[in-house]
Amino acid sequence: MNWISRITGAGRSKYVSRCPLTKEVIEPGFGYLLTTGQIISSKKFWDVIMTEPETLSYSLQHFNNETTGTHMRSLIFEKQSSATGPWLISDTCIDWFDVDRSLARNQAQRWWQTAGKFIPCNSGPAVETLSPEQLDFWKTYAILEAGREITERLNRMPAKSGARL
Predict the structure, then answer these.
(1) Torsion of CA 9, 13, 14, 16, to 10 degrees
(2) pTM of the entire structure?
(3) How does strand 17-18 pair with strand 25-26?
(4) Domain residues of the chain, as ranges?
(5) Which member of 31, 40, 44, 63 lies 3.0 to 4.6 Å from 96 by CB, making a disulfide possible if both were Cys?
(6) In Å, how far are 87, 93, 153 from 150, measured between CA atoms?
(7) Using alpha carbons only, what angle is made at residue 55 by residues 49 and 59, rounded to the nearest 5 degrees?
(8) What is the three-class DSSP state of 25?
C-alpha cells in the first residue's frame, strides 16, 4: 500500500465498525458478536457504563441518595437493555462477558460476511430474551449497585481547591 492509499483509505474495506463500548475501530473479520442479553448480563459492563464520564455524575448522585441520579441510571438501563440488534465488540472488552468466545468470534465473522445483516439467535431487547428473574437481577444490579466501589473512592478523595467533579 503506498502513501496515497494510506491517506485516502483506498484499498480498504468500506465497511468498518466501532466497538460501542470502547469506541475502537474493529477491522473486518475481527471482533465478537454478542446479543443484548449477553451484554447486559455482565457486572463489569455495568460498572464501566455507570462510571463513564457522561454518567459518573448520576452515579455520584445515586450513591448520595439523590433520586435524580437513580432515575437517570434507570433510564440508562432501559436504553442499554432495549437494543434490538447484536453488538460487535472489540478484543479489549470481551473479558467483561461470560460467553463462548469461539462462538462469538464465528458469529462476528458471519456478521462481516453478510455486511452486518447476520443476526444471532436470542437477539433483541433483553426483556424478550432473558427470563424475568434474570432481567430483574441485572436491572437491580445496574441501577442500584453498579459503580459503587469507584464512586465511594471518589467520595473519599479530598477535594482540591477549586476543583469540580
Answers:
(1) -100
(2) 0.85
(3) antiparallel
(4) 20-152
(5) 44
(6) 26, 19, 5
(7) 95
(8) strand
